[in-house]
Design a protein that fits this description.
Length: about 230
């Protein structure tokens, strides 16, 4: 299809609202070690760079060494709790309908997230989204994680050559897109803290119901010579 794009999606804060689940898992593992829990906003503010970085930031927030055996134990405990926990996670409104429409329009879809592969595949299956994403790059798929461009490039390498767009919600996603030379579509209801206009997005949206139309307009304007090719 002439105007089909390669669309790579972030996961947490973009397709799923998982901060309450992450907050719950973090508190459980810290409390199990006899350490204090955290307010929701503290944990939410540390999301975006993967589980290892999240736990390091939480340890440092409590004045504890951010590396070492305790860090490793907390990461392992977090993943074991989080991998099959979905009761506090929700899809953002309109996500499934948008993915159906984008797939029907011929766009090719992939996931690039800093969430580990196990929890990523589990949550995609839980919400019935796995059918849309033949390519899934998680935070432990490669030695590098976002904002390094390698995971995004790996996701795109599994798709057919076409102009590409990265759909994300955060500063990490903006940095990843810029490093990979791929335009960013910014979902404004996620976990960023910076002003949307500061992130250099090609497209900004706050409602998934509008995304297929916006991408359709963008695809019609894209040309091979002025869009990144993967």
């Amino acid at each position: 299809m002439r105007d089909a794009l390669n669309l790579v999606f972030d996961l947490d804060g973009t397709l799923i609202h998982s901060a309450p689940q992450i907050h719950d898992a973090a508190n459980k593992v810290f409390l199990a070690k006899g350490l204090p829990g955290f307010p929701y906003e503290t944990v939410r503010g540390f999301i975006g760079n993967g589980v290892g970085v999240l736990v390091r930031r939480l340890l440092a927030h409590q004045g504890l060494p951010p590396e070492g055996p305790l860090h490793a134990e907390l990461v392992a405990g977090f993943i074991s709790i989080y991998e099959e926990a979905f009761d506090l996670t929700t899809l953002y409104p309109g996500v499934t309908d948008a993915l159906v429409a984008l797939s029907a329009a011929g766009h090719r879809l992939a996931i690039c997230t800093n969430k580990p592969q196990g929890p990523t595949h589990a949550v995609l299956r839980h919400f019935g989204l796995d059918r849309f994403f033949p390519i899934v790059i998680g935070g432990d798929s490669l030695p590098q994680r976002k904002p390094d461009p390698a995971p995004l490039r790996a996701a795109l390498s599994g798709l057919q050559p076409a102009p590409a767009l990265f759909i994300g919600d955060s500063e990490v996603d903006a940095q990843t897109a810029q490093a990979a030379g791929v335009p960013l579509a910014l979902f404004t209801q996620g976990y960023r803290t910076a002003a949307p206009e500061s992130l250099g997005a090609k497209l900004v949206f706050d409602d998934f119901a509008a995304l297929p139309r916006l991408i359709g307009h963008l695809a019609a304007r894209f040309r091979v010579q002025d869009a990144p090719i993967a």
